[in-house]
Amino acid sequence: MDSQQAGIDAKDAPAEGIVHAALSRKQPPPESPDGIKTRRWIIFCFWAIAGLLGLPIWYATTTVPRAALPLESMDAWASGQTCKLEFPVHLVLAASHLDTAITIDLAQQVQRGLDKQNKSPIHRLRVITSGHSTADQSADAPYIDPLSSSAITSQVAATVNLVLDTSYTQPLAKVQPFDPILDIYHGSLSSTQPSDVSNLADFIANELLKLFAEEQVTLDYLLTGQTTHHESSGSIDSSSIIENYRKRSNRAFKYASTYHLTFSLFTGSASPSAWDIKAALDEYLGPFLASFSSVSKFSVDTQVQLYASLSPSLHGPQYDEASKKWTLLRSDLSAFINAAEWPLSPSIGVGPTINFVAYVPSPKQAPMVIQETGGTSWLIPQWGGVQILNPSTDQGNNTALTKQDLEPVMRIFAEQLESLIGLPQSPSSLPLRLSSLTRERAASLILSASSTLGALSRLTLKLTSIAIPDNVADSVQKTIHHLETACSHVHEGQYDTALEHARIAEAHAEQAFFEPSMVGQVYFPDEHKVAVYVPLLGPMAVPLVMAALKEFKQFKQARAKTS
């Protein structure tokens, strides 16, 4: 056994030697210190290029520009902390037939009555006397605004004109329809009977509160979301006023400094082929449009189209044997406009386009009325108005519509225009309704611009990856400047100027919020960035990282051996 085992060991000994020789040949020769230093310098240079050159270039080319925004000021405007809107409405008491002392005493008592009955924290009626200086006013009269510089430069909303008429045993109030004047007819007043002045003052205060009731309720609801109780008149229904305001807002266009009016004549046959629209506009609608100059401007164009076919989706008109008329159902009115064939472009002018359509049916379908009401006109909210013009039998086949023929059409178009621009329904005086609309528009625009600033601030904080160009910051600064100016003018009672600055502020706020370069980044989330960078940087980063780790490991092993 020993000899056999010795033979086996003798046979295995050469094989082991061969294996050890092969392994010794596969091992690389030990690196020289210079080679190790060179390799480490190469790895360091790669990392240095990536860190000192590549990363700055990448950061500079991919960094999203974010201009500094006054976020605290924007949030303050959005929350209503910067500007507490108050609307002083200045009224002039004119009484040329009364003594100065009686006039001032009457104005003071009217102001006391207004302050006592008016519970609105926003809308304040202020009475000043006409033709009297500050020295003429009582120095200890806390209820009346003196005729100071601020009162003189502010806009006067209305004039309370006292008219002496001994035939009236009780005072009577009449509002002039085309002037901002409230006439108060009264009997004689005696300085020896204070009750006469007191009774007249109470009557004037009640009439003024009734006159501005709709405006006060609307502003309270618009700015605070609440309504105040009016002690002056139990007949004032705040909920009804608010409901009418909502309907009016739904019908009306968004406020614009310029509207474009398009008057179109569409005929179902070859006649009438012309209309004296220019003379009709100048005569019946021109003064009406001119009265709106303090609120908005208007541009006008006209057009005529013959053989204008009705919309194919229209079910009617149907002939009614009983009335001998062609009738349209109320459900047909929404499909009456043939938008596919009638040239009614919504973007003709600078501002929003308001369309007014006069349709003359063909003789085969005349007269044409609405079945439910028997009327011939209707309003399309935020679009325009339509009037069916049925030719009278004595006109025959006239090929042109005269100015007299167009008078009722222009009257209807004027009423429709009032609804489309959101003119309040009361009071009965057109200038007073326009001044109410001015204050209402100024308040809504200030709220809109402030709300947009708040939305932009929240968007900036929530989406930190979106770009904020310098022009956005500039628009925000301009918005805040014009909001401050508008708020100042509102407090001073200069509502025309306040409306103009509020309109500019709202335009700049919308421009900042809807900046195209900023909006585009909203739809580019971080997941997309990862999907772009990983395939590009992964193949380059793995060799650098692995080489650095391997070299660090060898460095630690070398230090362990030396120690």
From TrEMBL:
Predominant location category: endoplasmic reticulum
GO biological process: attachment of GPI anchor to protein; GPI anchor biosynthetic process
Alphabetically ordered keywords of this record: Endoplasmic reticulum, Glycoprotein, GPI-anchor biosynthesis, Membrane, Transmembrane, Transmembrane helix
Cell compartments where the protein resides: Endoplasmic reticulum membrane
Membrane topology term: Multi-pass membrane protein
Entry keyword Glycoprotein: yes
Domain of life (superkingdom): Eukaryota
Listed transmembrane segments: 41-60
Cellular component annotations (GO), alphabetically ordered: GPI-anchor transamidase complex
A Pfam family per the record: PIG-S
Statement: the UniProt record of this protein carries the keyword Endoplasmic reticulum: yes
Pathway: Glycolipid biosynthesis; glycosylphosphatidylinositol-anchor biosynthesis
Similarity comment text for this entry: Belongs to the PIGS family.
Protein name stated in the entry: GPI transamidase component PIG-S
Organism annotation: Aureobasidium pullulans EXF-150
